[in-house]
Design brief:
This protein has about 500 residues and is of the alpha/beta class. The chain has 3 domains: about 325 residues, Rossmann fold (3-Layer(aba) Sandwich); about 50 residues, no CATH class; about 90 residues, Immunoglobulin-like. Helix content is about 25%, strand content about 25%. It has 10 helices and 23 strands. It starts with a helix and ends in a 12-residue tail after the last strand.
């Protein structure tokens, strides 16, 4: 064989091998062994193949065969109706190659997302990941084969991604250590109450703001978010000079041999920053939107506290966008009102309360009784997971007699030199441990200062007054960085912090 013919033969062989590799069916990470599919619904199965390739699919819960043809870009999709909760089942995919996905359960699929308090794992590992409060006793008994979880790797992406690297893991004593603590306890409660298998998609990253999880078109379509994009663009514009300064400072630091040597300089933030607008949506939410889910549980807000007033618009916009992308406008979206911490202002909690009160099909978990002044990662994730489950059990799983919320301010009435407050979710109002409540403050109409007030529960309302304020106009409760929970209802759930006034507050106007 001549050299030229050998070259042509090898080139032809390589092309053939490349075509064969391209022609094989490829499935996304979500469609893999141990997966959980949403029961009694129409789900999407999808993947990639050679353009024009015919794919047949067979599911073992109904023995039906389904067919799809890959489009010009190699994408294929098909819709499959799922049966009631159960399994294990299998799904067979046939094209140029065959793939069988095994140990599939039909059950309830929830997306757990947000920042570090949702990411916080059950088991103890490095750094702030110091385990849930009862991990030593919880892990040895965590054998729940009907609970599955898949982790989406952290990814800052400039463009929309359609897949990620990951695998579904069955809940056992080895795997549970890496499970989201909040999502694990949530799953346990739903499983125990309904018997349904639970699948959790864990897409979380510590220290990230809501704008990172919101797609670019949403941020561009609202002038109220212009400052988010402007701040980011300025960071990118300043990066080259900042990086040159960093290199100079680093060389000087390396050359310093003195005994009082300072810490090494920090590299400047650039396009790979995990707080970059939209880039976590691109890499960590967009790959999920074909997958049918029951709803979302969300724990985030700490990283937006500096711009808390803006969060009143940003968070609802993100929720609306996700619902549109998952093609479920009524998709349940439950979230945590961030816990007390010295660095978290009350305005961010108010923004979350505002979101709950103005966005349909949402619910808020109040955690003022389980915060930690000095630790932004309180370890009692069990109480958070259980309170999340109350919302889902009540609204999605027919447990109508459950109370999911603590008292929520409804209206007020001035009675001479006192103010009477009325609440929703007010059955059995009670003060914690029967002690006097000290979280209420009161002010006259023209006063900028709220003074401590006395408070008593009377006729299932709360009567507020102070001898220092003879003509009261407004009341606040728990309006501080580290509020204490004092007012509860008979369900043992704490009241959310609130204010009756419309005075300008910190971060208002800060964009």
């Amino acid at each position: 064989m001549t050299t030229m013919r050998r070259f042509i033969f090898i080139l032809s062989l390589l092309c053939t091998i490349g075509y064969a590799a391209q022609a094989t069916i490829k499935l996304p990470a979500l469609i893999s062994d141990n997966m959980v599919l949403q029961q009694q619904s129409v789900v999407t199965l999808w993947g990639w193949a050679s353009p024009g390739e015919k794919i047949s699919v067979e599911v073992s819960w109904n023995k039906k065969k389904y067919a799809a043809v890959a489009d010009l870009n190699g994408n294929w999709y098909l819709k499959v109706k799922t049966a009631k909760a159960g399994g294990p089942y299998s799904i067979s995919f046939t094209g140029e190659n065959n793939i069988t996905v095994k140990n599939v359960l039909l059950g309830e699929v929830w997306l757990a997302s947000g920042q570090s308090n949702m990411e916080f794992p059950v088991g103890k590992s490095e750094g702030w990941r110091n385990g849930v409060h009862n991990y030593a006793t919880e892990i040895p008994k965590a054998n729940y084969p009907d609970i599955r979880m898949i982790d989406v790797p952290n990814l800052v992406a400039d463009s929309i991604k359609n897949d990620f690297v990951g695998q579904w893991k069955v809940c056992d004593t080895a795997n549970v250590k890496e499970f989201s603590g909040v999502a694990y306890f949530f799953s346990k409660e739903i499983l125990a109450s309904t018997g349904y298998p639970i699948g959790i998609i864990n897409s979380t990253w510590g220290g990230t703001p809501a704008e990172s999880w919101t797609k670019r078109s949403v941020l561009e379509s609202d002038t109220g978010f212009a400052h988010i994009l402007d701040r980011y663009q300025k960071l990118l514009n300043d990066y080259p000079a900042a990086y040159q300064k960093y290199k100079t400072d680093l060389e000087q630091w390396k050359a310093d041999t003195s005994s009082n040597k300072k810490r090494s300089p920090s590299a400047p933030l650039g396009s790979g920053w995990n707080k970059s607008p939209s880039k976590l949506y691109n890499g960590m939410i967009a790959p999920l939107i074909n997958y049918k889910i029951k709803g979302v549980i969300w724990y985030q807000g700490e990283s937006n506290a500096e711009y808390a007033w803006q969060y009143r618009r940003l968070f609802p916009a993100m929720i609306k966008s996700w619902r549109e992308d998952f093609k479920d406008i009524g998709m349940p979206f439950y979230f945590v009102q961030i816990t007390p911490h010295k660095g978290q202002n009350p305005v961010i909690r108010e923004a979350q309360l505002f979101s709950w009160q103005t966005v349909a099909k949402t619910g808020m978990v109040v955690t003022t009784d389980y915060g930690d002044t000095n630790n932004i990662h309180p370890r009692n994730k069990e109480v958070v997971g259980k309170r999340f489950s109350l919302w889902a059990l009540k609204n999605q799983y027919g447990k109508k007699n459950i109370e999911a919320s603590g008292p929520v301010y409804k209206k007020m009435k001035v009675e001479g030199n006192k103010i009477r407050l009325y609440f929703d979710h007010d059955k059995g109002l009670v003060a914690k441990d029967g002690k006097p409540m000290q979280q209420f403050s009161i002010a006259a109409a023209n006063d900028t200062t709220f003074v401590p007030a006395q408070a008593i529960i009377e006729n299932n309302s709360v009567l507020i007054w102070s001898d220092a304020v003879q003509q009261p106009a407004d009341v606040r409760y728990g309006w501080q960085n580290v509020p204490a929970a004092e007012l509860y209802n008979s369900a043992g759930l704490p009241a959310t912090p609130f204010r009756t006034d419309k005075r300008t507050v910190p971060t208002q106007g800060k964009e």
